[in-house]
Amino acid sequence: MRMPALLILIGVTLPGLGSPTASLASEDSILVFGGTGRLGAPIVRLLLQVGEDVTVFARKDSTKERLAGLKVDYVTGDLTDEKSVTAAFDSKHFRVVIDASAQRGESSKIPRFYETIAGFMVKHARRTGVKQLILHGSIGAGDNIKEVPFLKSYPQTPNMIDKGVAEKVIIGSGIPYTIIRNGLIPLDPQPPATEHAFLTTDLSTFGEVTRDDLAILTLDVMDNPARINKIYHAIDPTLKLRTGQAG
Ligand SMILES: NC(=O)c1ccc[n+]([C@@H]2O[C@H](COP(=O)([O-])OP(=O)(O)OC[C@H]3O[C@@H](n4cnc5c(N)ncnc54)[C@H](OP(=O)(O)O)[C@@H]3O)[C@@H](O)[C@H]2O)c1
Description:
Blueprint: H1 5-9, E1 29-33, H2 40-49, E2 54-58, E3 73-76, H3 82-90, E4 94-99, H4 113-128, E5 132-138, H5 158-171, E6 177-182, E7 198-200, H6 211-221, E8 230-235
Parallel strand pairs: 1-2, 1-4, 2-3, 4-5, 5-6, 6-8
Antiparallel strand pairs: 7-8
The site of NADP nicotinamide-adenine-dinucleotide phosphate has 23 residues, from strand 5.
């Protein structure tokens, strides 16, 4: 069994597994959707630090500024264009696929964006034998909004309904998955990782969490059998929750 990436990141060597980085890079690659974004880029950075071979799926006009100088492979496409998603999955053999995408600007005009892209991802993850699909979602997605006391007074938005459907597509797909529902992200410029964020299976929790901590938690769940087919809420008890905003 592979050593969870977080252990490698902190330099832990388990008996019989050799040096932390020696067991990596020779194995299959990681595909990151949304890797050019504010959450995706720190995830990519940490993956490279533990010796992973990383492919980032990027739109042709994506600036890639956050990944400047990093040794990653790119595949160009658009998540709403299945042909380009198919080509991405066929570009190498991917062990893990991470979705850190978010619809903004022009793509927010596409109805059922998250449901659509989840459908493409699971179809091609299944076809190509992906071992784990890690989805960054949002606390309050779908029916979860009813479970979170903090969100009781917030109306459910089409975006969050869509995110709930996307989760169901992934859960029902049979692909080993891990869903990390992100809490409220601090306003930019946000603090660096506090390293106090954690994942909980208590799906009523809500709080703030930095993107750098979410990146660390992503590597924590990667290749970790204890985190397969689970939904987590990511929160950081050391960050004071700002009021008046959610999601
Ligand atoms: N921001 C928040 O407050 C917040 C709160 C809770 C949860 N989240 C969740 O956290 C995750 C990441 O958010 P973020 O703040 O890092 O977002 P972000 O900075 O806006 O990054 C979004 C990423 O998605 C990519 N993307 C968007 N549409 C695409 C398309 N049609 N095809 C291919 N790529 C596309 C963007 O690519 P380009 O480089 O081409 O634009 C970018 O890499 C999402 O799941 C989001 O819903 C965010």
